Amino acid sequence: MGDLQSSNCDSGRMIEAVTSVSLPKSLENWDITDIDDPEALSRDFLMCREAWNSLGPFFASKGYNLYKTRPKGSNLDSPIVKEPVPEKVEYPYAPLVFGKEQNMSFGSGSGVQSNYLCAGAGHLISYLQAVRVWPAVDIHGRHVVIKVVADDRPSHELEILEFLNSKQARSDPRNHTIPVIEFLRYDKFVFVVMPRQDAVSYRIYRWGQAFWPDFGTVQELLHLTHSFLEVFDFLHENRIIHGDFLEQNTAMNVLYPDGHWYIKGLRKPSYTRYALLDFGFSLKYPQEKSLEDIQVTRDYNFLRRSIPHPGTPYNPFKVDIIGVHQYFVH
Predict the structure, then answer these.
(1) pLDDT of the residue at 22
(2) Rounded to an integer, what distance in angstroms lies between the CA atom of residue 147 and that of residue 144?
(3) How many angstroms separate the CA atoms of 18 and 140, rounded?
(4) What's phi and psi for 189, nearest 5 deg?
(5) Where on the phi/psi map is residue 127: left (φ > 0), alpha (ψ -120 to 50), or beta?
(6) Predicted local distance difference test score (pLDDT) of residue 257
(7) 76: which strand partners?
(8) Could you tell me which residue ranges the Protein kinase domain spans (predicted)?
């Protein structure tokens, strides 16, 4: 897996190639600031999209061709792969169920309905895209996603991803978190490259396919359950709260057409691996801290998870587990 320091040496050479469109000023600006304001939504969406497009030459220099924007709409299309696509890919990369490219589109990720028409661009945003994430194809034809996780100020997400992908953490069999292929730095921003593991969507891209496909056997259901209970045991042992367990923040190592959840064999325990994604709301506490003594006051979006508000302060590790319980119950 890539080392953040080793990625710095070449990025300076690419800075002049990416000056035609300015990047967001900070990580906080690389986002949709107000989904209820059509003008702000349109402005932020297009700014983030242009920022990614302007970074194309930099990522190409690292061996990643970014997905292409369409003239209209928010979906992205896979670039044409010049090299032969490998018939078999190894973990952590996800194979295509049909063994070939079938409309490898990448759409919106948040599932928030908006139907706003982007000013001056003709983009109808049916769903808001997760604008900090962009898909790409590497030089071997393997599909990945790239996410911006920090600027010149260290972020909790970067700290946690670096820990989770350390040699020691990866040696723990309970570490069912999405693997980071490499860390890349451009200017002030830090990006992580991860394998794409999700549905191949004809309409919309979503994370969260780990819970969607049908289960063929009780063993397959137990395999999923065991995997996610294990990863939370691992995280909490290392004093990490995830803080955002939702189906769209889970994945399995397979690429299949959206809606084709009836395909047999997607969940074979001998092959299938599950992964926990998105550590944007996560926190890591000192190892010597007692789990019982940690209290927080931040909003966990209790209403969305159908969890009664515990009052403040509350123990985030207990709420993490309640969130997992809610998904298995439903």
Answers:
(1) 78
(2) 10
(3) 25
(4) -95, 145
(5) beta
(6) 64
(7) 69, 106
(8) 98-330
Dist. CA 264–CA 271, nearest whole Å:
13
Contact between residue 292 and residue 214 where contact means Cβ atoms under 8 Å apart: no
Whether the bond into 92 is cis, omega within 30 of 0 = yes
- Separation of alpha carbons 101 and 144, rounded Å: 14
Q: How many CB atoms lie within 10 A of CB 286?
A: 7
Amino acid at 120: G
pLDDT the model gives residue 201? 42
Residue 267 backbone class (left: φ over 0; alpha: ψ -120 to 50; beta: rest): alpha
Q: CATH classification of 5-200, choosing from 3.40.50.740, 3.40.980.10, 3.90.1150.10, 3.30.200.20?
A: 3.30.200.20
Sole residue written with tokens 């924007």: 69
Domains in the chain: boundaries: 5-200, 209-329
Q: Which residues of the chain have pLDDT under 50?
A: 5-19, 99, 102, 108-129, 199-208
Look at the chain and count its residues: 330
Q: Note the pLDDT tens digit of each residue in 202-212.
A: 333 333 478 87
pLDDT score at 122: 37
Residue 19 phi/psi, 5-degree rounding, is -105, -5
pLDDT of residue 228: 96
